Amino acid sequence: MLKKSNLLLLFLLVLLLSACNEDVDANEAQNENQDEESTHEEQEEETAELEVEEVQQIMEENVKEIHRIMSQIHDENYLEWTQQEWSMDIENEGEEFQAAFAIVRESLTELMTDNGLDQQVEHLLRSYFCGCDTYGVFMETDTQINIEIMDQSEDRFQATSMTLGSEALIHHGWTNEWHFKMEGENWKLDEYHRIDPDEEPLDLTFDDLQNAFRDYETGEIKEMELVDETEIGGERFIIIKNESGFHSAYNVKDGSINMSLGDTYNNPDEEGNNENEIEESNGTEEEQQEEMPVIEDPEDETEQNSEKESDQVTEEAEEAETQQNEEKESVQESPDTEEWSGTWYRNGEPFEGTMNISNVTDDSFDFDFDVRARDRTSFIEGTASVSGNEAEFYNEEFDCKLEMMLEGGQIEVVDTNGCTKIGGMGTFFSGTYETEQKVE
């Protein structure tokens, strides 16, 4: 009997242990499934594809930081490095150049891979310090238009962007090809290529132009209005108007600006405008007649007419005197339009320059600057607005503003920091321009 009881207890104990083991195995299996799901979710988060906005932000911030560091290096070493031979000879790669190269390379290691440094450091160094007209360096504005992601993986992406042509320096646009690689926790520039429109046409659209122009202070996109799309000589153009009413005509294939075509929209038919002015003037007179009060008493009407005639004579005399004074002031303040015309010289080696002014009217003139800072040159042309002895020009793409004042047979020119982007660091248009060139 005792044996039977022991056997029964042993059997029950085995059953109990089996049930416990099954619960443990079930819990372990559940935990394993949860761990697998959690790992899978983490992997999905890690490999989630970047959106266009994220790629654009990575590229823009990277390029902006590269140029911030280069500007700092420029400020710290400009006087020393621009006196060295390599700063005037693109073929010179001597010890002084190698020392400068090493400083720039080390400063940019957090922003570029080794491959990116091998490709870009010399371009950046010579662009900032060499007066040898080295172009092709990417800018922040190259990262902002028509971003397209061509390929991406967990630690790499390849994207393209568009750059429009300008009225200065390089007239046509191009396609930018960017390669970025993740190293540690940083996205770094691995490769950059510029593709000309002859090789790969831009196929510009109005949507591209709508997002192409930003306020340099706020970073906000400026509104553009589609005015027209036309074809001339087999070339297609898109005409847009900015917030200030200025029209620009862009070539669809290469992104260049057709200034002549834009001018046809900026300067509409004057005869049509005059007719509108006449219609508006007639409408005003009719309105004035409608607003005149009805006079019923003849005696009151005679008396009022007499007073009106007297007041009218007084007003006409005052208007004539005011007009004469304004004409005198205008003659005194406004120089003869011919005083602006001609070639003007900025003297003083090594920062010589010339300014040619032509097609002068009462409110505008055409100009072009050709200046030098040691062996680096810069050029800009355009149409300035004139008010008396002052003139002003603004290049929206580079945020370059020129203010000119004609006084005492000289023209004083003041430019903004954005103008250095046209010819590169070290060039400027500011200074005193005279009618005689002085040879030192």
Automatic annotation (TrEMBL):
Protein name in the entry: Flagellar biosynthesis GTPase FlhF
Keywords: Cell projection, Cilium, Flagellum, Signal
Sequence ranges of Acidic residues compositional bias: 33-48, 268-304, 312-321
Keyword Signal applies: yes
Record flagged with keyword Lipid biosynthesis: no
Domain of life of the native organism: Bacteria
Region (Disordered): 27-48, 256-349
Signal peptide per UniProt: 1-19
